[in-house]
Amino acid sequence: MREFSAPESYDVPATGNLTDAIVANAHEYADQVALRRRGPDGRWVDVPWREFLADVTSLAKGLIGAGVQAGDRIGLMSKTRYEWVVADYATWFAGATTVPIYETSSSDQVAWILADSGAVLVFVETRDHVERVGKARADAAQLRHVVCFDTGDLDALRARGAGVRADRLEARRTESTPQTLATLIYTSGTTGRPKGCMLTHGNFMFEIAVDVQGLDRLFVNAEAGTLLFLPLAHVFARVIAIACLQRRALLGLSADVNHLVDDFGTFRPTFILGVPRVFEKVFNAASQRATADGHGRLFDAAAATAIAFSEALERGGPGLLLRARHALFDRLVYRRLRASLGGRAEWVISGGAPLGERLAHFFRGAGVPVLEGYGLTETTAAVTVNTPEFQRIGTVGRPLAGTSVKVADDGELLFRGGQVFTGYWQNDEATAEVFEDGWFRTGDVGEVDDDGYVRITGRKKEIIVTAGGKNVAPAVLEDRLRAHPLVSQCLVVGDGKPFVAALVTLDPEALADWVKSHDKTGSIADLASDPDLLAAIQHGVDDANSAVSRAEGIRKFKVLSIDWTEESGEVTPTLKLKRNLVLATYHDDIESLYR
Fold this sequence. Notes:
This protein has 595 residues and is an alpha/beta fold. It has 22 helices and 27 strands. The strands form 7 sheets. Strands 1, 17, 18, 20, 21 and 22 form a 6-stranded antiparallel β-sheet that branches. It has a 5-stranded mixed β-sheet with strand order 12-13-14-15-16. Strand 21 (439-448) and strand 22 form a beta hairpin. The protein is globular and about 70 Å long.
């Protein structure tokens, strides 16, 4: 199967923009709760539609009063919080374009994005962000205003809009059309300078319409709601936030990932979205707690049963014995896992990277099916998704309505649809490189089966060719090895080498539990060569190798004494490994594997 197209079900209108739904909902459902935010005391505070619209319009007037013109770019650098959403919509009400910046970005990255986009104003969250922007101002000649959430600047900005009449704001708001640029989202930049992806109001309108059609059981529900903790600078989180506000699904906002279980318990979402690393940590934490309580074997048996139960669903259904075991473990284990997610979550949406079949089977078997999808910033998030009605674990689902996929002769996946971006900001050369006869070239290698389900097998530029001529997709091995509780990150290597090997970093939290349970002492550097720890990692390597042929398997590995993180620079804000940087930095460690 080389090409598959899903029938069109939505036409982007000639007029209107993303703000229209907010105005309509605020007028028709003024007292209904739109969002839930954290108050000063840490408790949840309900924000009704009328209050949300008032906050947005007053800030939008402030932007106009500060001299922001239609089409201007507005930077937005903050963790996920209520003010992020208000600033985003206020920017659109003022006819401007939002430029999200990850709050963890370095001064150099901030300088590049502000200068390249030509931002005239930037919202930031903290004083530290103000300092980072200050270092960037020499490069960002057009930047006139820095507005900090934590220092009361929003009130001052709103005061500047006191003289802006409502009809002037309405004229500015309605001036934008589906063809108007809504946002510039800069790619994480695993290699080279980040590029600004130009996404229009129409791109988002198309994406959200077909998303909600495919996932209607998540959004079209009187009790529907999700707790958003992913960075809103990520297009995946942004699309879900906008979709919730358009469809009036309750949107909760929290950036405190260290207390997610408590937040789930008080918010009680009906669906949850995250990246695979989040769900790996949920599984590993449950496993470690069980082991610490002396119930490790029970949890392992429950996990194996959940996986077997889910796998049986794809082969005609589980037998009586498996059903009985599953019912027992549901009372003993799965129920507690569902309770840790708030007790009401019926679905989980995963994106950003491959999840791994075993983890997907485990969650489905435990009663919380994971709907895995695929997309890029350039495609306004998802182009394919597994839906409640059409799900095939091991794939990223079928193309959304009005979307087509094609497999090139070299295996690269190409897409076409209303959510595909218009190009890179001020970079015609890069834009030309990713389009071929109207098809967007993703850079990912994959397959499409006869039913239209897409399977991702790796990145085109990351395929390893060993000295023996064997082509190896590292993602298959890396995704599986990262599922091991002790593993934080891994890099599979072997290009031009006689065999495949790997560098492995350890998860500090999991390692601390392992040290206690194995009565070990010493630093991470000491433990990196500990025979028992190496044996534990070898189990993960063996499991990863079971997914590939013998020639593709990891023959040797080295455990490093440090972790790769976003803070240390090896991982992007979307948790992707900067492969080229790691290859260069750890060249000697890689070479040592082949001596």
